[in-house]
Amino acid sequence: MHANFSAFLEHVSALYDLVILDTPPFLAVTDATIVGRQSGTNLIVTRFELNSVREVELTMRRYRQNGIELKGAIFNGIERRSSAKYGYGDYSYYNYEYKSDSV
To answer: Scanning 15, 46, 67, 92, which has its CA 20 to 30 A from the CA of 80?
Structure first.
């Protein structure tokens, strides 16, 4: 990685509370490996029903092989289906009030 990139990260980290770096998919190119080594926290983003379990496992393995700690995953594009719903109906809020009989 070019020294200017490291200097840039130091500069913006001093200016901002949070710096988010987005890279191409880990399995496609090596950018995520290079950037991941200089990041404080690494997360993967996976899309519901698009990325297979095998792809996610392979990505996690590649992170480990490159000495990069993976902190978690973000699942996006999750669709709510009627078959996934459960329960007995809508929930409501109840208000109880207690009053003295002597007043």
So the answer is: 92
Cut 0.70: pTM above it: no
Tell me the one-letter amino acid at 83: S
Residue 73 and residue 20: Cα distance in Å, rounded? Answer: 15
Take residue 6 and report the two structure tokens written for it. 């490291």
| Residue 98, φ and ψ in degrees, nearest 5 | -110, 130
What is the identity of the amino acid at 48?
A: F
Q: Whole-angstrom Cα distance, residue 103 to residue 7?
A: 73
pLDDT tens-digit series, residues 7-38: 999 999 999 999 999 888 877 778 888 888 88
DSSP SS3 for 54: helix
Q: Which residues contact 98 (CB under 8 A, 6 or more apart)?
A: none
- Alpha-carbon separation of residue 14 from 6, 10, 62 (angstroms): 13, 6, 30
Task: Of 13, 24, 88, give the one whose Cα is nearest residue 59.
Answer: 24
